[in-house]
Every structure is written in C-alpha cells, then in structure tokens.
Amino acid sequence: LAGTVPEEPRCTVERADTSLTYSLFLQRFAFSRPVILGGVTDNSAFRALCTREKLLAAFGPFPVRLSTANTYSYRKVDVPFQEYVEHLLKPQDPARLGSDTLYFFGDNNFTEWGPLFQHYVPPPFRIPGTSPAYSFGIAGSGSGVPFHWHGPGFSEVIFGRKRWFLYPPDKTPHFHPNETTLAWLQHTYPTLPPAWRPLECTLRPGEVLYFPDRWWHATLNLDTSVFISTFLG
To answer: What is the mean pLDDT of the chain?
Structure first.
C-alpha cells in the first residue's frame, strides 16, 4: 500500500508559523480549534536518532507494548522491538478489523526510552495548569487510530506523512469503533455530505498539529511513519 493511500484534496486545518506568539496561541487556538504549526521546532538531531538502524541498535531487544488499533484499545501485547520492526511493521490490511491490528504508540518504558526523548524538542506552547507527557510511535502505511478523543495535545511527524481527520466535541463522527481508519476512509468518508466532512490535513516531517481538549480525531499513516505526541494532562 506504500504510496497508494491518498492525501486530502486540500488542507482545511489552519496553519501558523513562527510569528504566532504564545498569547495569540492561547487566544485563537488553545481552547477552540486545531492548528498546524510550521517551523516552531528543530528536531533534526532527534530525527537522526530515529532511523531504523539507530532504533534497532539502541532498543532492538527491549520489549514494547502494542495496542489494538480500535477506538477502545483494551488489548495489549508485549513483543521485542526488533520483532515488531522486522515482522509486524507492515502496510495495513484493508480487510483486517481494528481489534486484530497491532499498533505501536504510547506505551513506552521511560527507563529505557527516556534517553531518546531527552533529545526531542517539544512545541513551545503549553496550556496553563497542564504538564506534558510524550507518546512515541512507529507504524506502517495505511495504519492509524480510528476516531477517539481525550485531552489537548500536540503531534509531530518525524518520518513519513500522517493524515488527520478532526471533529469538534459537539459533532460526533459516524464510525464503527472496530473499523480501521483506512476502512472508514474507503467506505464511510465518500458518503459524507459536505457539511459532515471533517477538518483534515496531512502532516509532513517537522510539522506539528495542535488539537484542543475533547476534539474527535482519527489518524492515517500514508507512509511507514515515525511520530511523537505531547499530551497535556
């Protein structure tokens, strides 16, 4: 599936650059709508440590916890990182349910992975009264997490491209919680009237998406991707 998962026709998420100040971020986006931030971080050093070769050399024998790629990810499976990369990191099977699809994102052992995260430069903005927590992920083309919501946060692509779909808290998307994002894009998305289309965009390396509290979102990796989120809890 590499290269066959389409990008959206046009990005409908607002973009901002380094001219966005913290006060304007709080005023315009922090509590109301998502925004894509460009040029606000330089993670070239972190990216250099996230190549396949470097990650396998540093973390190959360590276990990683995989989650099922459905809205309610209750099943967890522990495998060595090398086994995940060499045997499970592959394009999404369009016919496979979310409960049968394993996804590496979020459940990291900070004793082992902490030194890597020390090299990550997080986005410069915060929400008052919150503290950041990192979630690191690697996934194959066509994979992703279906619609869900939680607290506010940022997500940055390190390698690959990642397509996002977002709805505000008062507009619940139509989806099946055990359907993968790829299946939803193929079957449900084309039937949506224009008024029910989500906000959407594709993130590329170095771009950061901010999503506010309780916004519905689903993700779809267009390539084999490495990504990291900063959740504000």
So the answer is: 93
